[in-house]
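Project standup — Tuesday

K.O.: blocked on the structure for the chain from last sprint. Re-posting the sequence here as requested.
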Amino acid sequence: MRVHPVKGLSQFDNTRYGYYRKVRWLILLRELLLLPFALAGLWRLRREPFDLIHINEITLLPLGVVAKWLLRVPMVVHVRSLQRKPGSGLRTRWLNGLLRRYADAVVAIDHTVAATLEPELPLIIVHNGLEVASQPIERRPGDGVGSVKVGFLGVLIPLKGIFELVEAMRILKSRGVSIQCLVAGENAREISGLKAWILRKFGFARDVRSELEGLICREGLEDWVKLLGFVSDVRELYPQLDILCFPSHLDAAGRPVFEAAFYSVPSVVAVSDPLPDALLHEVTGLAVPTPDPLLIADALQRLAENPDLRRQLGCQAKSWAEETFAIDVNAARMLDLYHRVLSSNASS
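H.V.: unblocked you, prediction finished:
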């Protein structure tokens, strides 16, 4: 694989939670600044013998249209994030118009994402392929000895529900539940100076770790919540967990839920309408309709105090993950899609 580095690629964010509004319109300034570097990078590739273009996220679609015009090859567009509801405004109609006109195939990572796209698109669902250790890993027993371990993995931003999880841990402490939360993640932005001040002023950057440390200290949760920082190899963390918690405000299950399932770890996920390839409620984990601390605490307590249920859900989660997210199966589906796109364009 050859990599051509550029300073940055201009994106256009119309995702359900990141779309431009109010001060978020300022983010477009960054994309305009990156545009010359992105176009220069594409221009350098114009004589390369490509067969097709794969846009790895729909936010890159406008740049992908330029690439398709320049390189004259078919284009596959990957959609990894929830989009705004079809028909909800001019921007959404414009992006879906680009997909209809220029995308030879559209790939959604799951049924939840697919439901946010227009049904008439050339759409296929290919799950994210995951690969875990081939050798069985001995997991720490979570019942009978010591506290139950709950894991949170992700960048420390409020949108991921980390503050709600800490509040849930405060509730569980008050109830006397023997449980501990391991938080693996780092701040989204490690910046300082004038740039940091401006970003914080407009709400684009928060020192979430410092806020969490203060909250944990004020509530006396030092023994209940451990901030691990960045974990370079999460394969060392999952075997330590009994439960994975994904209390995101995005109303969707994320990659840690699927990774944990390979290690027989059930999940508690904030999702209002879990679809079969995101979470099977009462089968691979427990769903709560919103990232409400009380609901999260109730679900975690139920699993913490019922080791037999944890084991049952964990075993079922592992089987579900192996059927849904096996990397060889999903890689083969993507390769087959490439062949069909190329064959269709060759015959047209």
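K.O.: great, moving the ticket to review. The domain at 148-324 is CATH 3.40.50.2000 (Rossmann fold). The two ends are 29 Å apart (CA to CA).
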